[in-house]
Write a structure and sequence with these properties.
Layout: E1 6-7, E2 17-22, E3 36-39, E4 54-57
Antiparallel strand pairs: 1-4, 2-3, 2-4
Biased composition (Basic and acidic residues): 1-15
Organism: Paenibacillus xylanivorans
Region (Disordered): 1-20, 41-64
Length: 64
């Protein structure tokens, strides 16, 4: 089983890095002005702009 790539608000960051908001189906939907946060390992993810969004590490959030 691999490492999780999408996180809910309140989840703990698995690694240091920059995370951005993505839609439920990130490669199908574009988000205008997504929130970005820089977290240290173990810090909790903040709330997203709406309940249908999740957090994803910036390097893995690229659109296909």
């Amino acid at each position: 089983m691999g490492e999780r790539t999408e996180f809910e608000p309140g989840d703990k960051a698995p690694n240091d890095g920059e995370y951005t908001e993505v839609g439920e189906k990130s490669f199908h939907t574009e988000i205008n002005n997504p929130k970005r946060v820089t977290l240290q390992k173990g810090e909790a993810f903040p709330e997203t702009s709406n309940q249908n969004r999740k957090w994803k590490k910036l390097t893995k959030a690229r659109v296909h």
